[in-house]
Amino acid sequence: MHRKNFGRNRVLQPSTAYTPADEQEVLDILDRHHGQSIRAVGRLHSWSEAVLGDGVQLDLRRLNGVLLEPDGDQFVATVGAGCQIKRLLKELNRGGATLHSLGLITVQTIAGAISTGTHGSGRHSMSHYVEEVRLARYDESTGQAFIDELSAGEPLLAARCSLGSLGIILSVKIRCRAQYNVQEHFTESRQLEDVLDAEASYPIQQFYLIPWRWSYFIQHRREDAGKRSRLSKLYRLYWLSVMDYGLHLQILFLERMLRSRRMIQFAFRRIVSAFLIRKWKVTDRSSSMLVMKHEAFRHIEIELFVPRDQLADALRFTQETIKVAAGKESTLSADNQQKIDEHGMQESLDELQDQYCHHYPICVRRVLPDDTLISMASGGNQDWYALSFISYARPARRAGFSLFANFMAQSMSRLFQARPHWGKICPLEANELTSLYPRFDSFRTVCNSLDPKGVFQNDWTTALLEADGNVADIP
After folding, report:
1. What's the whole-number mean pLDDT along residues 93-98?
2. What is the 3-state secondary structure of the chain?
3. 439 vs 2, 157, 443, 445, 469, CA distance in Å?
4. How many other C-beta atoms can be found within 10 angstroms of the C-beta atom of residue 225?
5. Are strands 56-59 and 16-18 parallel, antiparallel or unpaired?
6. Contact of 40 with 169, CB cutoff 8 Å
7. Torsion of CA 70, 73, 78, 82, to 10 degrees
8. How far apart are CA 346 and CA 466, in angstroms?
9. Could you tell me whether strands 362-367 and 419-420 are parallel, antiparallel, or unpaired per DSSP bridges?
């Protein structure tokens, strides 16, 4: 018995698998397998080792209820752990509500989304808005499975982004807000300063560094009290056919069929920009405007979070590294080369030389600081910016991207305090990962308290909880 994740880079081989129908059945399964390793899985839209487990596997897709209740001028929704985000959005919309924060895709389950710190742009991550987590775990004194409700203090902060390490999440209560409209339009700029200045007017914007063209395409977004545009349906059709499918099919053709670096670089310099209609301002419902069909084509991804004061340097470093990886340059700039030498990473840079041609826009999203223990945007007093690097290479041809991802994670964590997304490629060693989080010791304490025997861990999370990393200074 085995299952593969979306990216086909992880294989799950559980000893036993269940799809329980309700909470009582989850408790019965836990009692039946007392002392064995137990992990829950969502929709497997994750590339990290967080999804792995070779013991008892629980797929909670049947626990997908949604109960929406008013809470002052907002709402609170109680959501079954296995409810997919797309179903949750439909149920919330029926009650005139929506989520505060939305990621690009909606196929994830709510438990999987919060457990890895899923985020959108211009707001906190989804985890930040969780009010309560209902958890199945073992009573230490009796050894029996029971339901615990975490709603305050460090246990809640840990449960908001837990990597599945506290127990089996059964449901969450999450703060919601009234449904709203978003106005969007595209522009292009060569200057990062102009992009960041636009945040004052467009606080939920996201932008893309276009490789080989080296300019920024900015998806300006802000809330709009006006009505949906008359052409909103046409705009959605444009996005679906031209952006979600047309652009991606072109990238797939270039990367998987032609395999020509020159054609990839030419396409991004001259052709990709033709897909964008600039300054077409359209207003539509937030739950339509803020998502993409990013799951339409199989890919692999690493995403790195840097604090705001490191963003400009991180993007310059990114551009230089991409050129070296594609063989366009042999070294970095003098300043970045000195940093690489100081951190003893020249050999890794040499290995990357001429091994990989990046072929996808680098999406950059701003995430406000989270009130959690270990979500990627936790801690500090600055906003965080997530830099997403995606490869559409076939699984058998990902060696170059793996070299690139490993180098970017190792170098940017040391140079810019970058944190890899827990749910994406996460190549750092356990002590390197934990050292990036000032409150990881608090997270470890909660895990050891709620799961002292480590039955809800896998090898990866166990290594994290046993790591002894020196905490980095977070500005």
Report:
1. 97
2. CCEECCCCCCEECCCEEECCCCHHHHHHHHHHCCCCCEEEECCCCCCCHHHCCCCEEEECCCCCCEEEEEECCEEEEEEECCCEHHHHHHHHHHCCEEECCCCCCCCCEHHHHHHCCCCCCCECCHHHHEEEEEEEEECCCCCCEEEEEECCHHHHHHHCCCCCCCCEEEEEEEEEEECCEEEEEEEEECCHHHHHHHHHCCCCCEEEEECCCCEEEEEEEEEECCCCCCCHHHHHHHHHHHHHHHHHHHHHHHHHHHCCHHHHHHHHHHHHHHHCCECCCEEEEHHHHCCCCCCCCCCEEEEEEEEHHHHHHHHHHHHHHHHHHCCCCCCCCHHHHHHHHHCCCHHHHHHHCCCCCCCCCEEEEEECCECCCCCCCECCCCCEEEEEEEECCCHHHCHHHHHHHHHHHHHHHHHHCCEECCCCCCCCCHHHHHCCCCCHHHHHHHHHHHCCCCCCCCHHHHHHHHCCCCCCCCC
3. 35, 10, 7, 10, 12
4. 8
5. parallel
6. yes
7. 130
8. 30
9. unpaired
Largest CA distance in the chain: 67
Judge whether 283 and 228 are in contact, CB under 8 Å.
Answer: yes
pLDDT band at 294 (very low <50, low <70, confident <90, very high): confident
Query: At 472, phi and psi to the nearest 5?
Result: -75, 155
CA quadruple 191, 195, 198, 200: dihedral positive or negative? negative
Kindly indicate the confidence band of residue 471, based on its pLDDT and cuts at 50, 70 and 90. low
pTM above 0.90, yes or no: yes
Q: Which amino acid is at 5?
A: N
- The answer to whether 322 and 211 have CB atoms below 8 angstroms apart is yes
Residue with tokens 């049947």: 62
At 115-164, the pLDDT tens digits run 999 999 999 999 999 999 999 999 999 999 999 999 999 999 999 999 99
Strand partners, 172: 79, 133
Residue 125 to residues 31, 58, 133: CA-CA distances in angstroms?
A: 34, 25, 16
Asked whether the beta carbons of 66 and 91 are under 8 A apart, the reply is yes
Residue 64: alpha-carbon gap to chain centroid: 22
Encoded tokens for 365 = 């999203």
- 218-273 pLDDT, tens digit each: 999 999 999 999 999 999 999 999 999 999 999 999 999 998 999 999 999 999 98
Residue 475 scores a pLDDT above 90: no
Angle at 385 between CA 473 and CA 7, to 5 degrees: 110
